[in-house]
Design brief:
Blueprint lengths: L7 E2 L2 E2 H24 L6 H15 L7 H24 L4 H13 L7 H26 L8 H50 L4 H12 L4 H16 L3 H10 L4 H16 L3 H61 L3
Antiparallel strand pairs: 1-2
Helix pairs in contact: 2-8, 3-5, 4-5, 5-6, 6-7, 6-11, 7-8, 8-9, 9-10, 10-11
Amino acid sequence: MEPTSNPTLLGIDVYLAATILSGVAAFAVLVAIYAALSVRDPMARRVKALNERREQLKAGITASSGKRRAKLVRRSEGADRIRAFLASLKVLQDSQLKDAQVKLLQAGIRSKEWAVGVIFGRLVLPVVIGGIMVFVVYGTNSFAEWSALKRYGLVAFTFIACYKAPDIFLKNQITKRSQAIRKGLPDALDLLVICAEAGLTVDAAFHRVAKELGKAYPELGDEFALTAIELGFLTDRRQAFENFSNRIALDEVKGIVTTMIQTEKYGTPLASALRVLSAEFRNERMMRAEEKAARLPAIMTVPLILFILPVLFIVILGPAACSINDAFIHGTP
């Protein structure tokens, strides 16, 4: 009696493949359960640090603790060295530095010293990585079969990509952060309206919104908390609102800031103005959702042809193919 072998599909043991996929699925379920049970409040640590800094500024303490001061000094020394090096090459301009600082703030990076690093990266990355690519292309035989035009194109693309890499990274971070903030703006405005109608001041309303929305929208909660703290210790409240607008690359936020400044200046009702803005933002969010839903059939056509239909054919024709394969291999003449 011949031992029965496991069914195969395209030369792959079906039982072995099913066992491996089951193990991967079980591991993914365990990872998902661990991620769900170990969720932490992303705003607690940030808000605590901001509140401590506010108390220090109110008390007239401008210096930090010894450990933090040493860290800031080391970071400042490194930035000063890079700044001096770029200044010696005459490639450091104040306009570029300010533009890099604004982009860093919009990307959620608070340290202004990194602005010098961004400009330094534009200078160093093409020299280092581009030089390595020039050596690999022209100094070795790795691309000997390529034509001269293709090798030149590869080197030129490497130089351009390395020069644009810091800006592309910052732009990607700004886009992700702006989209995350845009999702929570209508809810934040609704909470601001409720707080204003309840009689809370603008500072307390911003604190309340940061506390309530910190878990659902960490980026938006962080910005509201920082703005509330700036409203507490800055002498010019208009500057706090303008800082809030500069840190977020969204036209909606600029509209909110304009409304807040006008209400502070002329004493107009805050709740009614914010209610109108909230309704507009909700309508815009619904329109964006409808636009994405309208594009879905066209977007799903290619994945349907490439991934879903082949799997469907395998599921339908797989058992029959396994049976025919077994009949040809183990069948009696």
